Amino acid sequence: MPGPLPDGAPVPVDGALPEAARAAVGRAGFGVYVHVPFCASRCGYCDFNTYTAAELGGGASRETYADTVLAELALARRVLGDAPPARVDTVFVGGGTPTLLPPADLARILAAVDRTWGLAPDAEVTTEANPESVDPRSLAALRAAGFTRISLGMQSSAPTVLRLLDRQHTAGRATAAVAEARAAGFDHVNLDLIYGTPGERAEDFADSLAAVVAAGVDHVSAYALIVEDGTRLAARMRRGEVPYPCDDVAADRYLAAEAALGAAGLGWYEVSNWAAAPAARCRHNLLYWAGADWWGLGPGAHSHVGGVRWWNVKHPAAYTRRLAEGVSPGAGREILDAAQRYTERVMLGLRLADGLALDALAPAGRRAAAGAAADGLLEPDALAAGRAVLTLRGRLLADGVIRTVLA
Q: Where in this chain does the record put each Radical SAM core domain (predicted)?
């Protein structure tokens, strides 16, 4: 089940932001995230803020969800008032399974974002999708509505791995959906992979990588399996039915991904993400990693505007009820101080292939970076040029490198 929200200060009932935050909105770019919390079934590893029909209960429904999101969008427009962003650079619809909503509903939400703030002429508009939740007709409708990019949850091409993860699609469905998305006119298609699942063999992951490459996508995201408390998979592991993931195996899988994807012309630009060209990189995620602004619509969605971060109530029924009452769905917020901004800049910047400017680090951090380079974790040439850039070994130990330079 979904994990708890962070602690924070109360959000004003009207969602009002400090004037300094409103004045700064969009200076480093502005995006919109739309959370769609519905899934046909729950995957065994998932602790995202998603709900099956049985888990949803009363007070919220797929049929009226688009209208509820539009109500929050209207509130967002009131909050930003006469200090709107210059434009919306990116829109990302995530979940859950956004494509459980009719394409017409997703189109209505996108059109409302455009009416509210204006989409940039070159805006990147992404939707996530499970492979079994789309078909040629729905993909064509999404493309016609203005979606430019689709991210498909493949996870693996091995039937045994898909079964253990409780995925509903067949082994070949993800790559078939890629072909359908291309035929519908999507220039940018991502496939997600999960590696290190117990029982996954090296040849299983090699086959998954080969399938991704053969599909011809221009972006791949690959993540090590993380077992979260409260999930069905965690319970099975505690009972001894399934072994826990192995860090050494995960490292081997990462190296295999780098080798296969690199040979196919996809270069890493963030520790877990590879793209065929700069234009194929996920601009919405880059907006997050650059510390820009975004408004998150939907239950459990997080937002960041001008140094203020807040998050909505998690359950769709509570979210719907608050908006029906004309009050903000925000559950809590924090105003980031200088120390928090510094930590986040280092944490996010070091994960990127462009790295982090050395002068962004405190003196102790610069000294630690020199030590990390001596240990083979940061590129010596880049360091000499004034940037901290992870080596391949450093990517395997990225969290440790970040802790070192922040110490």
A: 24-264
